[in-house]
Structure formats: C-alpha cells, structure tokens
Amino acid sequence: MKILVINSGSSSIKYQLFVMPDQQVICSGVIERIGLEDSKVRYKTKEESLEEVLNIKDHKEGLEKVVTLLLDSKVGVIASTDEIKAVGHRVVHGGSSFTETIEVNQEVKNKIKDLFPLAPLHNPANLEGVNVAEGIFNKAKQVAVFDTSFHQTIPEKAYKYAIPNEFLDNENIRLYGFHGTSHKYVSEKAIDYLNKENSKIITIHLGNGCSMTAIKDGKSVDHSLGFGPATGLIMGTRSGDVDHSLIFHLINSLGYTSEEVNKMLHQESGMYGLTGYSDLRDIEDAADKGDKLCRLALEMNAYRVKKYIGSYLAAMNGLDAIVFTAGIGENSQKMRELICKDMDGLGISLDEKINDQRVSEFTDISAKEAKVKVLVIPTNEELEIARQSFELLGR
Question: Which runs of E-coded beta strand occur in 241-282?
Fold first, then answer.
C-alpha cells in the first residue's frame, strides 16, 4: 500500500511517500520558509535529488508543487494519483474531540476547523492539506493523526489549570500538549538505546515551533505547550511563556485589540520579535557577525530550555537522558552547546568534538563522565504517521 504523508507545519511542509508495511520510502522532501520570497523546495528519490528556491506564498501552493514533483515525467515516482491509497495528515490540535488516529470525513474536518482558534498557525494549514489532498488524490483515504494524542497520559495534577473547576468540567480547558508524534517517536528510540526497564527522559523538539516533554517509563507526564501551541519555550514567531497580565495591559492600557495581541503573540513575537528574523540559521549568522540582539535572543532561548529541564527533572525525581530533535535540535550545534553549558551540576555535559560534527543520524553527544545521556535523534513524524495510518485502515 502506498501512503503519502503530509506534515504541514506553520512555515513548512514535509512529505514522504511510503510503501507499507515495508516502511520503504519512495521519495521524500520538504518545502521550507513558506511565505517568504526564498522558499526552499527539496525533493529526493533513490535516483534523483533536486533543490529549488522559489516564492511559495502559502501551503496550498506548496502542496501543489509537491504533487507536480510526484507526477513529473523525469523525477516523478507515480504515473497516476490513483496509486496513492491513503494520505496521512499531521493535525496539531485535536482538543477533546480526538484522542486517536481517525479517518477524515466532513464531520472531522468541521471539528478541526472549530479548533482553529486554539492552533491558529497550524490547524488551518493542516486542514488546507486535507482539502487539497482530497481534490488531487480523490480515490485515497484521508487519515488524521493528532499531535495531542500522545499526551493523554499526562496526569490531572499536570494538565489542570488553577482556574475555576467549571472551565475544565464544562469547556474542556486544560493542557493538551503538542508535537506528540515527534516526542513519541524519538522517546521510543531513546528507550531502546538506554535498554532500561524504567526510564526518565526529556525530549526537546526545537524547530520553528518548540516543545519539551517529560517522559517517564515511555509515557508523557508533562509538557511545555498547553491549551494552545504558544506557551513554554521561545519559538520562531511565538512568544512562549509570558505573564498573562501583559495581555490585559496591552489591551486595557495601550489600546491594542484582542485580535492584535493574539496575532502579536503568535506571529510577531519569539525569535522574530527579538531579532527581526524567524529562521534560527539567520539569527546564528548575525550573532556570529556581532549582532548583540541576536546573541541575546540565543541566550534567552537556551535559558528557557534550561528552566524546563530543571523542572522536569524535579517532577520525575531524576533523569536518564535528554533528546534533541527536529530542525534546530538536530542541526544547531550552537543551541545544543548553549543549552547544555553549565549543566554539569545536573549531570549534563557535552562532548564538544562530537557535538561540533554534522549530525545526520542517532548520535550520543554526551561527555564520557556525564551521568545523563545527551542524544541527538532525528525525528521521523512522517514514518510514525504512516504506521498509524496503515494500522487504522486495517492493513
């Protein structure tokens, strides 16, 4: 069975075409920097590899480009869209409506749309992927895999907010957690590596969106993102944790509307708000050239991660390993260095030579004397989505 997996992020589209259950990858690629004039398009098969710089204005245009490549007479891998039997989609927010993988119908799409306010950068892009795929792959089953599912094991003491009980009881307002497909995938790899019956792991997903999960014995027990995907760590354009009094000050004293504040915190804050850049590669380049704001932003970013490491270590009463994953976690030696610097008191330290090398596969970058393993594990959300889609459709 050929399953196309589409992972529409806030500013990117990752895609892979699998033959299941063999888990054979026929082609893969990514479109990055969507919405910018220098969007990057990558496409790879066993025989071919290409890269282009285009102006991809939105996710619809990006997905149409992916399909063009799949059907291309020279580099394409399918002769007809009918060869695709299922399309697996990453959907960020499932709210209380979706706790497991599900086949998409109109009711499912309506509920995903209802959740737009909780994930304004993601659910619209996710649904756009479903709608475009339905039109192009009209004979394929559409499957939704939710980021929130993995975090259903978080205990009430961690997911409940200290607001009146009625908001949880009647409105399902609680911490949901995100990036669950990624955290699940890399944590299972880490547990296999540790070969330990009982494990305490912190997975650190660093991309344009960022999150951390405390994972005890393979189960998510706490997470940095909450009711929506804007709290916790400093992200590409999202603020992460702020004092909620700030929101009321912006509205009541400075005259901003709630819509303007919402846009600010989701699309104009984070690393972009601090530096004018949303891509960490641009920020690191500017910092290396002496830009003080970019240097400070990197230090702030790392400091926030350190705080969460400390809190999760306390919550689990120990730590066996931390895992870096996703675009920044896998590729930024600088961020890993800043995060692990001066953490030897918690048993965390890097082997600088190994860390400085280009990492493209599972790598243990911890110092020999370190009590806590520091691992770089490339995430593969697409494979996890393909697995779950195949299992749902009954083989």
Answer: none
